[in-house]
Amino acid sequence: MTTTPPGLYAIRIRGRLGPTALSAFPTMVPEVAGGDTVLTGSLTDRSAVFGVLAQIEALGLELLELRQIQVCPPSPESGDNSSDAV
């Protein structure tokens, strides 16, 4: 059985969602991209992913894309070392 790791997800839905539709996704941050709505948020496990997909289907929305966003930890080379204070 394949497991879905927790992480940050971007879900693209066709069209611009209004306040009522957006209220169905309280943990997701909406953004309009072109004529579509992209919901971004953290989903804790496979069940949470399928829960959001079920909500999209129940509302009769058209899912265009589901993507897990890879978050890279800051690297030591980034120059953000607070211990180097002068």
Secondary structure layout:
Blueprint lengths: L6 E7 L5 H4 L6 E5 L2 E8 L2 H13 L4 E7 L17
Antiparallel strand pairs: 1-3, 1-4, 2-3
3D architecture notes:
By secondary structure, this protein is an alpha+beta fold. The protein has a single domain, classed as Alpha-Beta Plaits. It contains two helices and four strands, in the order βαββαβ.
CATH first level: which class? Alpha Beta
Could you name the CATH topology?
Alpha-Beta Plaits
Low-confidence stretches: none
Query: How many domains make up the coordinates?
Result: 1
Query: What is the number of strand segments?
Result: 4
Q: Strand-residue fraction?
A: 25-35%
Average pLDDT reading? 85
Largest sheet: 4 strands, antiparallel
Radius of gyration: 17 Å
Supply the helix-strand structural class: alpha+beta
Task: Assign an overall shape.
Answer: globular
Order of helices and strands: EHEEHE
Q: Which CATH-level-2 architecture?
A: 2-Layer Sandwich
Distance between the termini: 53 Å
Q: How many DSSP H or I helices?
A: 2
Helix content: 10-25%
Provide the spatial order of strands within the biggest beta sheet: 2-3-1-4
Features:
alpha+beta; 86 residues; four-stranded antiparallel sheet; 2 helices; 20% helix
In short:
The protein has 86 residues and is α+β, with helices and mostly antiparallel strands. The chain has helices at 19-22, 46-58; strands at residues 7-13, 29-33, 36-43, 63-69. It has a single domain (7-70), classed as Alpha-Beta Plaits, CATH 3.30.70.
